[in-house]
Amino acid sequence: MEKLLLRNVDAPDLHTLAGYRSRGGYRAIEKVLREMTPEKLIDEIKASGLRGRGGAGFPTGMKWGFVPKDNPKPKYVVCNADESEPGTFKDRLLIEKDPHAIVEGTMIAAYAIRSHTAFIYIRGEMVYGANMLQGAIDEAAAAGYLGTNILGSGYDLDVILHRGAGAYICGEETGLLSSLEGGKGWPKVKPPFPATHGLFGCPTVVNNVETLAALPWIIDNGAARYAAIGTEKSKGTKLFSVSGHIKKPGVYEVDMGYPFKKFLEEDCGGVPNGRKLKGVIPGGASMPVLRAEELDGITMDYESFQAAGTLLGSGGVIVMDETTCMVRAAWNISRFFAHESCGQCSPCREGCHWMEKILNRIEHGAGRAGDLEMILSVSGNIGGNTICPFGDAASWPPAAFIKKYRSEFDEHIAAGRCTIHQKAA
Amino acid sequence: MTAVKFSDESLKAFQEIVGRYPHKNAAMLPVLYLAQKEFGYISAEVMEYVAEIMGVPVARVYGVVTFYTMFNMKPIGRHHIQVCRTLPCALAGSERITAAIKAKLHIGVGETTADGRFTLSEVECLASCGTAPMMQVNDDYYENLTDKNVGEILDRLK
Amino acid sequence: MDPVKITVDGREIVTAKGKTVIQAAAEAGIDIPHYCYHEKLTIAGNCRMCLVEIEKMPKLQIACNTQATEGMSVKTQSPKVLEARRAVMEFLLINHPLDCPICDQAGECWLQDYYMKHDLTPSRFDERKEHERKREIFGPYVVFDGERCIKCTRCVRFLQEVTHTDELTVVNRGDHSTIALFPGQTLDNALSVNVVDICPVGALTDRDFRFKVRVWYLKKTPSVCPGCSTGCNISVETYQNRIARFKPRVNEAVNSHWLCDEGRYVFHSLTEGERLTSPMIRQEGGLVAVDWDTALQAVASGLAANGPTAAVLSGRNTNEEAYLFGRMMKKLSPGAALEVFYRERELTEVEKVLMSPDRSPNFRGARSMGVGSAAGVEPLLKKIIEGGFHSSYIVGEDLASLPDRGENLKSALAKLSFLVVQDTRMTPTAALAHVVLPSTHFGEKNGTYTNRRGRVQKLNAAIVPPAGALQDWQIFSRLLGENYAGPEEIFLAAAREVSAYDGLNYEKIGTLGAMIEAQKQ
Fold first, then answer.
1. Do the beta carbons of residue A376 and residue A399 sit within 8 Å?
2. CA-CA distances (angstroms) from residue B125 to A345, B90, B99, C358?
3. pTM of the entire structure?
4. Is C508 exposed, middle or buried (0-12, 13-18, 19+ CB in 10 A)?
5. Would strands C418-423 and A277-281 be described as parallel, antiparallel, or unpaired?
6. Nearest CA in chain A to B82
7. pLDDT, tens digit, for every residue of A291-349?
8. Is the ipTM of this structure higher than 0.90?
9. Is C171 within 8 Å of B58 when comparing Cβ atoms?
10. What order of strands is seen across the sheet that includes strand C242-248?
11. Of residues A343, A361, A381, nearest to C174 (C-beta)
């Protein structure tokens, strides 16, 4: 498999300007500034087939194209470095090891939409990562890659690092913008959309760290080469974060379309301690869990996961072996969403906690007949009725766990306790 | 006029922060971090002061401070232990780590040791799932924890 | 207008470009249920109650934030929509306290109303409800209940966007979200109680009205606030012949949806206290009750013998009363000096949103009817104090109690040869009179006020005066020797004489008023 994003990640000096440049860094932005108009750049990225790597998978070139060129307001690019989806830690790797790639990618995106001010919004907890990024920004600025008249091109750009303060919802596009504007991380009602009314009411593009970090390679090597990797609808490579009951946890760069079961068993070493695989969440805790038996034939790309009734999402692969109590796992995730709900809209604010309360009760032995139907009903009432996709994300896991492991839930309720022999924690 | 005030050095930092953004309001979070660093925690008086220098209603500051987990409205211990409890860490045994810390420090979750050295919290996913279980103490991540090495780590934190 | 045609539940509706689906539907009389939407506030989109089905859109959309576009087809009663509504109702009710029996909002609560109209499914929630602060005093007039609150943020947005005072915010997140004041602050701006009006549930309630009477017992009469010359449109709500509260009525030309706190509670000072129920004449030893004929005889002869009279009409008397008063004084005391009581004061920025700098709701109307001039009442009061009159006729104003001139006026009035006081209560001024005439207050009157901007608006009697009192217009007409069937006839007579009111009648004035012609006035 090709390594594009992680090709240099083991180099100990990659995070320095010298180390980054010695490996071909900042050639892409030079090429963009010298040879490409923003329109040509957008076309190139469209042709590459790059899709947003934060979780939504929206075609990046198309997103850039939505920004109105003739709008007199300033345009903004925001790098979404608020990685908080449980099971996901691939942005952190790039932030800590390859911050210049993120800076360069941000610059490329900014040029595409004629932005002169870009922000990198990093979650507050990642202090080390923030220091790495600020260091890269400072080095780039000192070397003339940021500021006014970059490389004599006449193009100006400032990149400002901005730290969040602890809220998963700030990873949602408009929640991030509300937070960056100095408020609570409350997602905004849409329409209007960020492309026309984003940060401070101005046209804005929000891109994930991994999406931006992929841009330099695409520019250096051409859209066609990127599009040659992967499947028809999922081009290029994707970083998958693998955790849980797996021999070799970590971040893997995978060609889109790679067989999922093979990935887990061979590349990741399979389940340790001689245990059997029970289930896998493929795309971060929001995404419906897959039973071990369902993995045959699934390939690691957007289409295949969707056809299997789940989603690729952030690519946060959480592996669970036979010792895992699925009731407890479902409760754990529902507790996460209850904790992180911003509280603005009624279905999410009330529904997430309702589901958590029921799952809490079941897990601790006080489950009742009708509880599972209730969770499924509440889940269905949240999804599709909220201001932002958090509601959907919160509604999927409890429903999926119950649907896929129904008998285990039934037994747990009937017995008043977990019936899996060795509990996970 | 409020009782608390930034030091001259912090005021300079405040001006620099505000100067980064096209709109002053956007400086709210970094200014709150600055205030938390200077005053230890964000009390009602600190909120009034921030509202004054930011030129916003104090109710707005209040809403922001209460929304985010990283702003403390009460004093906490010198070392804020934040153990991740979300699924991947839970699968790796985060509950044993929390139990070990509680046993060692004799405090519960949300509590502070009598000598003001440690506060224990449980937090959600810190994007360190591959090196679970783990915890954050103040600015630093401590990964691949075991019930044994967590005690050693805490001993080193004065 | 740039017309846009949409279909709502099969009905074709034409609306203006820029309107949202909820607005277009409302124009056509289709009420889409909602909580957080308010036509004078920014869109929050958080209650999700107004979700509707729109053709070609896979997900339900909130009607409050969806622009009506040409050819759009909207369904507000489809099974998907009804299910979503029940779902939202259920979510709003799971942590809602079972407070109805003790909650003032009962009977005008949107949760109750929508439950009856759009839900009627039993509660499925069988967990522990979240608890929040109850009975928290937010300010002198507003009390908060955090458990009843549905976090629609109407109150927060009102205080940000209308009064610009920003007292309230939402704190915390998730289902610990709640409305709060910054510790130590109070909600006491001049328009604070409007948040009670706009709160759809019993989370914000009126301390003055607390536990007084169930709203379904209230009789509601449209009228005009007697507080100042803005003339906010109100609903006077009464029970057992007593005023229980004022609520604002919507009139975009005057007060929009709002009412100031001072006006809202002004009925207390204007209507409470023991009422005068008989005319009185001063004899040896004090005031004694007499019949009307005797009293009015005494008035006529007293004025004739002690003219010219200083005549002061209250700013709260109607146009009809002013018209008769002016003509009556000219007849009974040629050369009388007539003024309507009017005093200006400073207003704060918040007060200026709605209030006028006076406490004389009909000063402009009275002057237009021939009582008073731009010179105002101050020179007249000064002359009274200086002893420039031998007699005075004072209607509805307790001049002896004025904060600055009261003492001087009291001694001057006491020295008059003849003083007539027409009022509702035995005020210190009335106690000085030679003749006391019992009359009515604004809540008992039918008539009109002309507000500061020249809008004639109708007062409607909400309660019945005590036996023994007469309407001011009845007293004046008897003194004048003219017969009228009622205020409407008086208004028509005045309109014939005062050109600014030419062509107006009660029907044209209606419930929202009509402008007089300023040039002619």
1. yes
2. 23, 10, 18, 61
3. 0.96
4. exposed
5. unpaired
6. A125
7. 999 999 999 999 999 999 999 999 999 999 999 999 999 999 999 999 999 999 999 99
8. yes
9. no
10. C219-224, C233-239, C242-248
11. A343
